[in-house]
Automatic annotation (TrEMBL):
This is TonB-denpendent receptor. Residues 1-31 form the signal peptide. SUPFAM superfamilies: Porins (SSF56935). The keyword Membrane applies. It is found in: Cell outer membrane. Pfam families: Plug (PF07715), TonB_dep_Rec_b-barrel (PF00593). Residues 441-955 form the TonB-dependent receptor-like beta-barrel domain. GO terms for cellular component: cell outer membrane. The keyword Membrane applies. It comes from Sphingomonas sanxanigenens DSM 19645 = NX02. A motif (TonB C-terminal box) lies at residues 975-992. It is a multi-pass membrane protein. Residues 77-191 form the TonB-dependent receptor plug domain. Gene3D superfamilies: TonB-dependent receptor, beta-barrel domain, TonB-dependent receptor, plug domain.
Amino acid sequence: MMKATIGTCRHLAGVSFAALIAITFSGAAHAQEAPAPAPQQTDTVTVADEAPDTGAQERQNADIIVTGSRITTSGFNAPTPTTVIGAEQIANNAQPNIFNTIAQLPSLQGSTGAATGTFSTSSGQQGLSSFSLRGLGTIRTLTLLDGQRVVGANVTGVPDISLFPQLLIQRVDVVTGGASASYGSDAVGGVVNFITNTKFEGFKGNIQGGITDYKDNQQVLIQGAWGKSFGRLHVIVSGEYDHEEGVGPGNFGTDLAGDRDWYRATTLVNTGVLNSNNPQYLYRDFGQPYQYAKYGLINTGPLQGIAFDAAGNPYNFAYGSNGTPARNAAGNVNGCFVGFCVGGDMSGHVGSGTSLQSALERINGFTRIAYEFAPDNELYATVNIARVKTNNQPNPGAARTDLTVQCSNPYLPESVATACATAGITNFRYGLSNAILPNIQVYTNRRQYRFVAGAKGKIASNWNYDAYYEHGINITDIDVENIMLNRRYNQAADAIRLNGEIVCRDPVARANGCAPINIFGNNIPSTAALAYITPENGPFQHTKQTQDVASLNISGSPFELWAGPLSVAFGGEYRREYYRVNADPYGAGVMDASPNSAEYPADPLLNAVDGSNWYAGNYKNGRGRYEVVEGFVEVDVPLIDSEGAGRANINGAARVTDYSTSGTVWSWKVGGTWDTPLDGFRLRAVTSRDVRAPNLSELFAAPVTTTVPNFTDPRGSGQQVLIIQNTVGNPDLRPEIARNTEVGAVLSNPPWLPGFSLSFDYYKIKLEGVISSLSAQQIVNLCFLEGITSTCGAFDLDSDFKFVNVQSFNLASIKTDGFDIEASYQWRRPLGLDGSLTVRALATHVRKFVTDPGIPGTIPVDTAGNNTGATPDWKWLAIQTYENDQFSFTVQERWFSSGTFGNQYIECQAGSCPASTQNNPTIDYNRMKGAFYVDIGGSYNLNEQVRFYFKVDNLFDRDPEASPQTNTGLDVNPALYDTLGRTYRAGLRFSF
């Protein structure tokens, strides 16, 4: 497989033998350094990213500070690996959002963007672009702008990259290791630091358009930036507009958006048999949930199996697997599995109706004004005002599986009413996709107002200072449309005939405006009925977050030692985080939101105290804040500096942090580098203690209520039921503590191959006290299957509105290790041609990623190589660019290895399986193919000021692999796989 992949790269790129060596070196991991920094350089690594840059030699004298450390003195090399992505590589990738370019780095695993979370109604993370390093989650990656914190765009505290001023970004530094001692909380996986060009002068712009091969996700990007010096005053202004139409939604059944045909409703069906020679789970396409049909299905009792067509006529439902209804109270189907058959009538399946990518519109304005009050000293202020709107469709309709229908319902066909009488029943249980209702739509609107005032510069010749105050505000509104109120739907569906007229049975509901609906067939409800069931004012959540930061950092060299100057950095920071969230009274509870009573009038049939009346999107009210005071010191001690022994240093840092919620915690690091006597060969190592404090959501989460439509009740036959999941905060949480260790070697610009670099780094992370929660399924399973009675009080599965309460604790631990590799080479005048050929390859290998839930009855699970998650065994990125003065051409390959659905499964074949257990269930197939994507792009200078460019992503239109579900969701993993298909982009860049 690897040989074939590399051969394909060679064929497509047409690169030289030397370039192929660089690609081969990337058969693994990720990154850091290119040609060795010159002694006078202040960076950890050269900006070797700016792919086809013929001015690399001149750039070596630039005053670049790479963010692996707070020390900024000349000649310092930090031991923490850092990947640098420069402006040229960002431009060559031609993405509408810089987030998409950075997220392709192999060390970034599990990042979220417009293609993730589209199935969600209640999370509030639709379209939220945020990074995750090492697969540790977005909350454990610290994202900075010019080394400064950015207010969160979600109560988890993570910022939205879409709100950053992107045209002014001159490079992005990705610190792939623990950096809490240098930068503070959240830097457990590392740091992503966006560096803007604060000295920009002139005018530049970019106009770009794009579309997929399926004629959707039409995209328009317009950017402009202007900068000018007026003596000592320097002004920069930038603005941008980006509109991405999104993809989808699809429809019921297996009909995806556009002409995409890869959706197969792939499911892990549960046989329900644990102790036999046969596997418990079976990998099957076209999993058919047998609790409902598109226009209705009787799913229990003596009439089970009667379905209704669009005209409302009854017919015998076509169960897959040649199944036949058992006609018992549990609703089993003979010949089928727990909750599913295979094949049969798929018309009511809802998974394919999910949006494949959220529509996104972002508007960004940025201004920086600086005044140089003395040489190399400036006062500055920045204003960043931005807005991002997104929308998506979670699923079509609003499936219900647990309706109780009276046989006297006047809409029921007479033949079915007669069958009721014959069977001696007065009601039956009923399920339908609710295709008669308008589809749910979720709209988010994030607005950011960020203001920074600061001063930075030099004190004497050996000292630098950087002080700033930041005030950030993020206001996020989430509105859900076309969603039902469960109790009102139940009342409207329960019809009777009164005085010759069909009305709602309940007189209280009638008095409150209830109009009946016909749930047997494709009968679109009346305007009055829709206004009652899905009122115009649906669920909403209004969140305001504020962040205040005051920071002072000083660095310099107080004196010389035997091998060079002693370098130190020290400083302190104060930070205050606050949030307040208000929700609609039907979701949060009328008593908590009385100002909204005009739009949400009281209804005696709704729960006025606890809320949770909506089908989904039951947001809650809440607020919380915490304050942080911290100080740090970092020291670099040169140990040796001689021709015979090379050059070595030891670097250490310590930070003390006091949280108003959880007290004082320490973080530290110690490491060193050794430039060996071998020309261009460096060794480095670092170990650190890093922390992540609980965020506002974990501490003070407004209780969030979500609907889980296919929850497995473990009692009896394992019936699929609809439950309400309530997620609440825990103010007693403590900080997570991590131990990071990295050891690596770097070969930079050796005399035998100028322009070549290669680095290899091993990393190991152990994270204790991980803030995590049991899933609703785990809570219930632990009670009934494992006998752990402490979880039995957290749910009620016997009431009409079943619920499970979920809360976070410092329960779990994570252990992961692996290695990163980067190789790059720049060949000037390849084969005698003008210009240069630049090859760069980065890769990450995750050896293990073990999560121990810390729960009795559970065991640690290794998810490395689990391709339904975010940490494949191998992930790499290779880029080859040829450029001369007139044009450039780039080929990019993205690849990750094949894996499993879950490493906890035991794969076995019928007749040779061990007993299946909760921790190690058996399965008949447990392999999930990786993916190889090829992107191409190029540019052409129309004149000295204007450059045309194009880009094609996923050139061969590779479909995603199925990520099998045990429910009725979209069977794909957009965190790894491209779900959009071939995409074309083109545009013009200009500068004056």
